[in-house]
């Protein structure tokens, strides 16, 4: 039975993945400093011990006392993104992870590690520090760049993953030097979005005039679509590149309506009024949860605002991808 430490636990995507993988074990302790995320975590996992504290205050002794053999973690990714100016090890948000990398030599009980981050991490200095520390402490590791669409999920979220194991005797997985970009199993085509759509969605999810002005850059999905774009923290704030929108209309209706709207100036009332016919709307937090493969019974507490839900989801992970990686890691 595995005993797991979930670091940077957020809303518990790793916890959900552990459950989905059906491996034997328990999350012994989860740690995060975001109080809203922690409230959501506790709402869904009331029995799990969750600590609201800075990971940098954790000592090797404390970890040893927990008697854990596995660490699942998704450290902050902003230092490795354009928005975060690719500051890498110079961004203070990497401090806690660099601290953990250095602490690894004292964590003799840790046998298994799974780490998630953004695409781009693989080219960073912090990645080199992490890999050097894994090697120095006798871990065998494998890096991946994977998208949920490759495991049958109709959503894009290309992410870096690293799984590492101290003892490889009996590990069925054959590691490769290069980064792996697909999993051996054939997951088939992603399901259509119909499976995750809610009915009777409130008008509050309809796009407002400000966003409709940017209608030409929207990514539109349909009931029968087998894809959707990655949902980011800025979903519903900016139109471009923050996640897809949905319409009940079909492609022909959308094309016709856009053709008509584009006969007007994009900042005119006519442009916006014409597009309103399509009833373009955001995916609800509940739908985004499904697209990120969270279980059906996962819920946000009612006092958490919709904006907070999107922010937390934008920071979270795809549960299905991680559960597949956990099966490989513990195989
Ligand atoms: C990429 S998110 C992790 C998301 C999480 N796996 C989930 O499913 O929601 C990074 C998380 O790290 C937390 N965090 C960042 N720095 C931290 C630190 N020094 N100590 C504890 N938590 C930290 C943030 O609050 C955020 O929730």
Task: Describe what this molecule looks like in 3D.
With 331 residues, the chain is of the alpha/beta class. The chain folds into two domains: 195 residues, Rossmann fold; 85 residues, Alpha-Beta Complex (DNA Methylase, Chain A, domain 2). 30% of the residues lie in helices and 15% in strands. The strands form two sheets. It has a seven-stranded mixed β-sheet, sandwiched between helices. A three-stranded mixed β-sheet has the order 8-9-10, with no helix packed on it. Strand 4, helix 4 and strand 5 form a beta-alpha-beta unit. Helix 1 packs across helix 11 and helix 7 packs antiparallel against helix 8. The longest helix is centred in the middle third of the chain and has 12 residues. The two termini are 13 Å apart. The model has no long low-confidence stretch (mean pLDDT 96). Bound molecules: S-adenosylmethionine. The site of S-adenosylmethionine (SAM) has 22 residues, from helix 1 and strand 2.
Per-chain topology:
Layout: E1 2-7, H1 13-21, E2 25-32, H2 35-44, E3 50-52, H3 60-66, E4 70-73, H4 95-103, E5 112-118, H5 125-136, E6 140-146, E7 159-165, H6 209-212, E8 220-221, E9 245-246, H7 251-261, H8 269-276, E10 281-282, H9 285-291, H10 306-315, H11 319-329
Parallel strand pairs: 1-2, 1-4, 2-3, 4-5, 8-9
Antiparallel strand pairs: 5-7, 6-7, 9-10
Helix pairs in contact: 1-11, 7-8
The structure holds S-adenosylmethionine (SAM).
């Amino acid at each position: 039975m595995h005993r797991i430490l979930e670091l940077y636990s957020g809303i518990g995507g790793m916890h959900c993945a552990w459950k989905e993988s059906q491996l034997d074990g328990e999350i012994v302790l989860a740690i995060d400093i975001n109080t809203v995320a922690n409230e959501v975590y506790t709402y869904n996992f009331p029995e799990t011990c969750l600590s609201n504290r800075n990971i940098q205050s954790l000592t090797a002794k404390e970890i040893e006392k927990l008697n854990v053999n596995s660490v699942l973690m998704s450290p902050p990714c902003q230092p490795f993104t354009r928005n975060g100016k690719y500051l890498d090890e110079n961004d203070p948000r990497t401090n806690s992870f660099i601290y953990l990398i250095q602490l690894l030599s004292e964590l003799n009980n840790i046998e298994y590690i799974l780490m998630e981050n953004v695409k781009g991490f693989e080219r960073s200095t912090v990645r080199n520090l992490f890999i050097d520390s894994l090697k120095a402490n006798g871990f065998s590791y494998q890096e991946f760049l994977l998208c949920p669409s490759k495991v049958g999920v109709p959503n894009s979220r290309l992410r870096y993953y690293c799984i590492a194991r101290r003892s490889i005797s009996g590990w069925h997985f054959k590691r490769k030097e290069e980064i792996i970009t697909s999993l051996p199993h054939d997951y088939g085509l992603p399901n259509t979005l119909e499976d995750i759509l809610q009915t009777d969605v409130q008008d509050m999810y309809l796009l407002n005039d400000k966003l409709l002005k940017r209608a030409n850059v929207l990514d539109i999905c349909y009931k029968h679509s087998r894809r959707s774009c990655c949902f980011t923290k800025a979903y519903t704030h900016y139109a471009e590149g923050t996640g897809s929108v949905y319409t009940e209309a079909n492609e022909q209706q959308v094309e016709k309506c856009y053709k008509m709207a584009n006969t007007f100036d994009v900042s005119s009332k006519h442009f916006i009024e014409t597009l309103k016919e399509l009833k373009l709307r955001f995916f609800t937090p509940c739908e985004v949860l499904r697209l990120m493969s969270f279980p059906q019974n996962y819920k946000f507490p009612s006092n958490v605002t919709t904006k907070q839900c999107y922010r937390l989801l934008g920071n979270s992970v795809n549960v299905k991808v991680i559960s597949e990686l956990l099966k490989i890691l513990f195989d």
